[in-house]
Design a protein that fits this description.
There is one protein chain. The chain is an alpha+beta fold. The chain is built from nine helices and twelve strands. The chain has helices spanning 56-65, 87-103, 108-123, 129-136, 184-197, 199-220, 224-240, 246-255, 280-289, and strands at 2-13, 24-39, 44-45, 71-77, 139-143, 150-156, 159-166, 172-177, 261-265, 272-276, 293-298, 305-308. Strands 1, 2, 3, 4, 5, 6, 7 and 12 form an eight-stranded mixed β-sheet that branches. The protein has a four-stranded antiparallel β-sheet with strand order 9-10-8-11. A hairpin with a 6-residue loop joins strand 9 (261-265) and strand 10. Helix 1 (56-65) packs parallel to helix 2 (87-103) and helix 6 (199-220) packs antiparallel against helix 7 (224-240). The radius of gyration is 18 Å and the shape is globular. The relative contact order is 0.20. The structure holds (R)-mevalonate.
């Protein structure tokens, strides 16, 4: 029997732009997914066959890892699906960790690479930020070239990403989940279509990359006012790219009096927003009064962890 757990994530800066190779910063959070693999007479996931469409990430992980099996996989997750908190990445990383541990244990860089392939395959287009953050944990900064804290480099066609570890100080974020499940693939495609036909779109993507670099520096300096201002600017650009949602705007307006800044996190189109705050109870209350579900999350959590029994 092999067990692997992997964390969800929130993106502090740079979602969508990172798909084009721009910088982005994400942190692992204290909501996790666990995958368990037991030898069995036939393949199953949570008691249903491997080809069940609900488990396409796990089925892809089985194929990508080359596991022969058959195995009975059990997946348990505390991360709401389609919430922007990295549920599909955590499921993929946890499944790959358990699959490899049950046959040929793998290093994190291999898991990160295979998990990225799985997400890319299922979504149609993706960046490696979610899967690498779930694998490595802590904070992960994507850059266009190799720098200090380098973890690994991942590539798809012309695009490449250099993933780095970053130490970030403790920060308090409250996530506001709209309850609207938005699939990432179509939102990523929408931004691509916009950027393909409009040079303004490409300029916005580049500006988000610049905001990420400034935001990472402001976090290092613990300048929360600057971090919050940059989150607000990032949010305006995400709205302009067409991945916002009126509920996200409502939550962001509701938390404004109690937070340094707020923005959507992940793919958008519903999903969740995050607020940086030192008044988490008031922020959580404001989100719930506006009709959302609030999660106070702890950042900088451990990455994937395997156990074999
Ligand atoms: C989704 O959590 C983040 C996106 O940038 C997509 C990706 O990076 O694959 C929207």
């Amino acid at each position: 029997m092999a067990v692997c757990s992997a964390p969800g994530k929130i993106i502090l800066f740079g979602e969508h732009a990172v798909v084009f190779g721009e910088p982005a910063l994400a942190v692992a959070i204290d909501l996790r997914t666990t995958a368990r693999a037991d030898s069995a007479k036939q393949w199953s996931i949570n008691g249903v066959p491997l080809h069940d469409p609900h488990y396409k990430y796990v089925r892809n992980a089985v194929e990508r890892s080359g596991t022969v099996g058959p195995l009975s996989m059990t997946i348990r997750s505390a991360i709401p699906e389609g919430s922007g908190m990295g549920s599909s990445a955590a499921v993929t990383v946890a499944a790959l960790g358990a699959l490899h541990e049950s046959s040929h244990p793998a290093e994190p860089d291999l898991i990160a690479s295979e998990a990225f392939d799985v997400e890319h395959n299922v979504q149609g287009r993706a960046s490696p930020i979610d899967t690498s953050t779930s694998t490595h944990g802590h904070a992960v900064l994507v850059l266009k070239k190799r720098s200090s804290g380098f973890l690994w480099r991942l590539q798809k066609g012309e695009r490449q990403w250099f993933l780095h570890h970053r130490d970030v100080p403790p920060m308090t974020f409250v996530v506001g989940h709209t309850g609207i499940e938005a699939a990432t693939g179509p939102l990523v495609e929408k931004v691509r279509a916009f950027c393909d036909k409009d040079a303004e779109g490409r300029k916005m993507v580049a500006e988000i990359g610049q905001i990420t670099l400034e935001g990472t520096e402001a976090i290092r300096e613990k300048d929360w006012v600057a971090v919050g201002g940059l989150m607000d600017r990032n949010q305006k650009l995400l709205n302009a790219l067409g991945v916002g949602h009126e509920k996200l705007d409502q939550f962001i307006a509701a938390v404004r009096p109690f937070s340094y800044g707020a923005k959507l996190t992940g793919a958008g189109g519903g999903g969740s927003m995050i607020a940086l705050t030192d008044r988490p109870d008031e922020v959580a209350r404001a989100i719930e009064t506006a009709g959302g579900r609030a999660f106070k999350v702890l950042t900088g959590q451990r990455g994937m962890e395997v156990a074999c029994q």
